[in-house]
Amino acid sequence: MRRRDFTIGLLLAGAAHPVPAQAQQAAKQHRITIIASRPVALIDDPRSPVFRPFFDELRRLGDIEGQNLAVERYSGGGNPEGYADLAREIVAQKPDVIVAGTNPIAKAIREASGTIPIVWVGVEGIQDGLATSLAHPGGSITGVDLNDYEVWGKRLQILKEAVPLASKVAFLLLRDTWELNRQRLREMGRRLQISLVAMPLAAATPFEYRRVFAEIAPERPDAIIVHDRGDLLHNRQLIVELVEKSHLPAMYGAREFIEVGGFMAYQVDQGEVGRRMADDVHAILNGAKPGDIPIYQPAKFHFIINLKAAEALGLTLPPSVLGLADEVIE
Description:
Number of strands: 12
Radius of gyration: 21 Å
Number of helices: 13
Largest sheet: 7 strands, mixed
Structural class: alpha/beta
Strand content: 15-25%
Shape: globular
CATH class of the largest domain: Alpha Beta
Strand order of the largest sheet: 7-6-8-9-10-11-12
Order of helices and strands: HEHHEHEHEEHEHEHEHEHEHEHHE
CATH topology of the largest domain: Rossmann fold
CATH architecture of the largest domain: 3-Layer(aba) Sandwich
CATH superfamily of the largest domain: Response regulator
Number of domains: 2
């Protein structure tokens, strides 16, 4: 399901008072479209850790919605099967730049149009064929690569420190993400003496969440790790409830899960991500080619612990884990 929020500024001029060419140029309006994996409501939430800094940075750079910038917002709805149709619909509107959340959304847009510039945020862009290199991505895509593999290694390491006896960890994620990284993720787990068991979702729907949690129960995992892909945020409350029913500690990839009762989250500095995306959009609107703009990899991360959730699990966290936290919620 998607909702459109479209604001256009109009320049009005009387026939008796023609507007100078310089003023017409100054009032030129650019159009961008955001296709997020998360719900549209989270794009405009003033607390949004990604999009609040994104729009703030655009304004700082002089790209102001309602004045010289028009913005349409869409959500992929967590349903990859619908991305191709959505991409074709948006490409037909010929925006100046498309901001794409997740690899599948970016791929669908590129398939629908090989020329409209794309500012993307996702994971493993080179491995997944979105770019030829980080320094010179080539083609129509640039953006932010969240370096999925290494970050998940850190998340798993922290989870192991918090729950030292954990030897089997269930991993909730989209099926295409698991298939792309299965071998490397399992090797990462082996180095930490952890057996990773996938909970692959065919789609980010309530039915699928309930199905995979029911199917993983006989495996008797010691903990759960939940992917940070934005599609999963649509049902974050349900995910946390299902995790709580399993009575297992969980590491999440996004703060939004902690805000609805989750245990721990280790995430990139989402404000940094939002600002970098805005910088890319601004550069493209001013003539830069996306293939010439280096893809950025975040260097800042935040670790959040919810002590109330730890208490409900009967866990006493070691000082080494508490010392790593950037934020402790009591």
